[in-house]
Amino acid sequence: MRKVVNIFYFLSLVLFLITLTLVYANLPSQVGVSVDDRGLPDQFVGRENFFYLALLAGVLTNILCWSLSRFMKLLPVRRSPNKPAFFSNSVLKDAIVNWVKGFGAVLNFAIIATITYLGAFNNSDTFSGVSYDGFLYVGPILIVSWLGVLIFLMVSRRPATS
Fold it and tell me: What is the pTM assigned to this prediction?
């Protein structure tokens, strides 16, 4: 399972960088980031600022998830009933560590969807007649689904009581 999560995570990093680069190359000098009631941009940020802010969001997200997964690997597993520990068993520990790394990938895909939406929104002449609003829902759906996976892991990996 760890290899699958690592491949998923690496793929999300590569796609994040490719998406950011391609969208940046096609953005106008002023990037619309907010819309008014008519659907027209009313708040703008410079193209370079957009690039660096998106890159910063990706880097910080990945550093946070990577650091959290490394820290969780260091937490102890309960070996006896009287010894306090964060994890009740090693299977749960491995599952949660993999979940955290996978959550980093999910957040990468959420950022990719947001960058793609903003790129399509700011190039509406290229994407005329095409609805790209679905990209707005990809991130929240992925995050909620991954949180559902966490709930499933927590419920299914509880130790058996005798």
Answer: 0.84
